[in-house]
Design goal:
The radius of gyration is 14 Å and the shape is globular. The longest helix is centred in the middle third of the chain and has 7 residues. The chain has one domain. The chain contains 1 helix and 6 strands. The strands form 3 sheets. It has a two-stranded antiparallel sheet. Strands 3-4 form a two-stranded antiparallel ribbon. Strands 5-6 form a two-stranded antiparallel ribbon. Helix content is 9%, strand content 26%. With 76 residues, it is mostly beta strands.
Length: 76
Amino acid sequence: MKCPFCEQEMVAGVMSGDGRSRVYWEPSEEKLSVMDKVFGGKGLVENVTYSLTKFQLNADYCPHCKKMIIDTDIAK
């Protein structure tokens, strides 16, 4: 998929998390190990607010094109 702003190829992936853990993003073709998440912090989404039962991530959504843009940084 091409980025709507810069026309570069975007990477498909999945964001996951709950109130008990941090939020991580992992590319569709590469699954992060437990060790990556616990000790390395790889894939950690930095722009997230946590509470005991949920997480919140600010994002802009376009109802016309059905795309969501999230400003954040992913730990490598």
